Every structure is written in C-alpha cells, then in structure tokens.
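Here is one chain, start to finish.
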Amino acid sequence: MRVSSKHSRRLSLREGVFALALTTALVPEVSAAEDATWGTCHPPNAYMQRNLVSDNGVPGTTVDPNLVNPWGIAFNPFGAVWISDNEAGVSTLYDGNGVIQPLVVTIPSPPGDTGPGRPTGIVFNGSPGFVVTNGTTSAPGRFIFVTEQGTVAAWSPTVDLTHALLVVDNSAKDAIYKGLALAGDGTGLFLFATDFHNGRIDVFNSNFAPVSSPGAFHDPFLPAGYAPFGIQNINGSLYVTYAKQDEDKEDDVAGKGFGFVNVFDASGQFVRRLITRGRLNAPWGLALAPASFGKFSNHLLVGNFGDGRINAYDPITGRFKGRLERPNGNAIEIEGLWGLSFGNGLLDQPTDTLFFTSGPDDEEHGLYGRLDARQCPTAELAPDTSEPEPESE
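Its structure:
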C-alpha cells in the first residue's frame, strides 16, 4: 500500500439553492504593467489575464492560505466555483472576482494515512445517484473528488456540511488519480478516474461500484511510458490527455511533444487520436471555448502543465490553430497550469471567461485567475513581428 505524506514531487435545485446561500468586496485590480498592454493590441484577438486569488500575496489578489496547488475546477450551476486544493487537502469556493466564500470542505485521506487528502479532479453531480451516507442520513453527493492517494470522496450539504466522505479506496492498488469526469452512456451515469500510476481509467457506477469493461479506454498506438492524466466530458465524449510518466510512475515529465489527446465514447470505445505530440507538454486542462471567446471561439483549448501555455485546436480534426496570447503578442504562460473551465454565468463568472488554476513554485503555492477575450479595434492593431507558428504538427 502506498501511503503518501507529500506524494513524491507533490504529491437538486433545493440543495443547489442551499449551497448558493452558503457561498454568497474586494476586487483585485489588474497591475499597471498589465493594464498598459491594452493600449496597443498585437494580435487581432487578445486575452487578458487577471489573477484573482493566491496563497502568498500575488499582487492584486485576494489571499487565501488554503489555495495551495489548486487543481480541478467545477462550477456549482447555482453558485460559486469549487476548487480542489491539492496541498491543503480541502476544497475552497470563490466568485468570479476572487471573493472567498465561507464554506471550506475537507477532503479525507485513506485509512492509515495521517496526512491531508490530496484532491485533484472534481465534478458536480446533479443526479439522484452517487449517494453518500453518514449514520442515518443519506443524500446524493453533489461534488465528487478523486485524490492522488487513490480515493474517491463525495460531499453532500445535508450529510456533512464541511467534510467530503470517503466512498472508494484504491490506495492498496497504488492508484494515483489525477483527473475525474462524469458522463452517461445511455444506461446510466458513471465516474471516470485517470489512474496515472497504473496507466488506466477506472470507472464507477452511480453506486460507486467499479465497472469492468475489458478493452475499454485502450489506445493501441499509445507509446509505452505514457498514462492517462487529465479527462473532460465535452458534449458527451470523453477527452483524455496523456503525459509521460516519471521513473516511479507517480508524476509527469515535462517536455515539448510529451503528450497526446484521445477521444473516447462513454463506454470506453476508442474514437480517435485527436492530437499527437506537437506543442503538447504534460497536458492536463481541457475546455471547449464558446462562440464568444474571440479568435479561438469554438476551439478546443488544451492547457500544458509542463510549460504553462494554452493551445487551441480544431475540436474535430485536432489541427493546431494557435496559442492564447496577451495583448502585446506574447504567449500566455501560467506556471504550474492545471484546470481550465468556463464560467456558469452567475456571481460574476461569465460563460465566456476562462478560469484557471495553477500551482507555481513547484506546486508549493497557488493561483486562481481568469482570462477574458478582447477584440482589438483595427486602428489599434500593432504590426505582427512575431515568428509565425505552423498550423499543425
């Protein structure tokens, strides 16, 4: 059994309204240096980074000491965003301006592990399934988490307001869960957890029971040494990122071209290899941009943990279309980039704003922020002096 203290390098409507009431002002400002870049736009479309929350006082941010190596992002459809704080062992909540919400939820460790839980992926569950029980009280888990200790935990406001409850423990199998998605195949809803250590995707039904599907989630062309890393339900299909494993198969190895993205259906059938190497660099975050996201509207956005860049691809062909850039034409690079997700339209969380999490300084710290698209007027466009990038690799 792998017991981790710091895990290698880092190691219903009523309920919805209730949660919103729990998560009902300081507005961080863009720095003068960043704001100055708005004066002259370099690309036809540009993206402005606004840092909202940090654990260590990044200028212009709200300070929350719980926000350490924030990873997965899930929006409550009735309220604030929920974030998995990997190094703090909790989930914290914020609005779209970085205002801290009063609820903090503790993520459990497996039995025998005296350290905090190490949450990574997180999903919102609005179904009547995935019930959690504490004594005589049972209710559907509304937010579900996976951890690097190989566990699954679920939270219900009516079962335990401040703690998620352990529902699956695969720590004895040395599972290291890095990502989580929720999807249905027509017969029911299932959880899909990426086990990076064992190079597989574990599937659980709405009772948290494991589902065995021989041959599922198999890519016959995947090179040895790569494992499922991030996962996202996009329009009913499961998009899976793959990263290169380190020697202990516990963490990713950064490097240009170190990554793949595959598409599967919810039964685990391989649909296609979407992206092969190219600008992928330990990719984890995935998001499909809406029609109002500037230059990269309706594109698949892939965030690299390895180099902090966000690249845009055709969601059907996988063809590279460009990188997200600042108004001055420089690539956006966010150290330790993890989650990517568009807002829910509530609490200053626009549906066309891309929110992100990151664990800078070797995941010892944390940052939560947003990226907003800006269409530059033609008269403001500066000449493009950057080297053109190929459209595909």
